[in-house]
Amino acid sequence: QVRLVESGGGLVQAGGSLSLSCAASGGTFSSYFMGWFRRAPGKDREFVAGISWSGDNLYYADFVKGRFTISRDNAKNTVYLQMNSLKPEDTAVYYCAATKVPGTPYDYWGQGTQVTVSS
After folding, report:
1. Distances (CA, A) of 3 to 19, 27, 91
2. In what order do the strands lie in the sheet containing 3-7?
3. Which of 27, 34, 65, 86 could form a disulfide with 117 if both were Cys (CB 3.0 to 4.6 A apart)?
C-alpha cells in the first residue's frame, strides 16, 4: 500500500508561484509513474502533469504547458509540481497519484492540497 501526502498549497496572487510536493511511503516509489491532477469547484477532476519512473518522460495538459514543471526525486520518494504564472482559473484542489502502468487507472491517491489564486 502506497501512501501519498501532498503539501505546499496555499493562497497566492495571480502571476505568482507555488511549489507542491508529494511524499510517498509504503512502496517502491521508483517503480511508479506519478501524476498530478486537480479538481476545481463544480468541475471534474483533470490531469495536470505526469512523469515517468526515471523522470525522463514528462507529460503536461495544454493549459499548463510553459507554466508548470513536474519533477521527481526517487532518493527522497517525492514528486514535485512547480507552478509559475498562476492564474485564477488554476484555483483547485491538487492531488498526486501513482500508477505502475501509465494509461491505466491510478492505483493510489493523496488527500489533496488546496491552491487558491486571487485576481
Report:
1. 20, 8, 24
2. 3-7, 18-25, 78-83, 68-73
3. 86
The residue type at 46: E
pLDDT in tens, 31-43: 999 999 999 999 9
* Cβ atoms of 107 and 99 closer than 8 Å: yes
Take residue 92 and report the three cell numbers written for it: 483547485
Please classify residue 21 by burial: count the beta carbons closer than 10 Å to its beta carbon, then call 0-12 exposed, 13-18 middle and 19+ buried. middle
Q: Residue 31's CB: how many other CB atoms inside 10 A?
A: 11
Beta strands 10-13 and 113-118 are: parallel
Summarize pLDDT for 3-32 with one digit per residue, the tens: 999 999 999 999 999 999 999 999 899 999
DSSP single-letter state for residue 83:
E
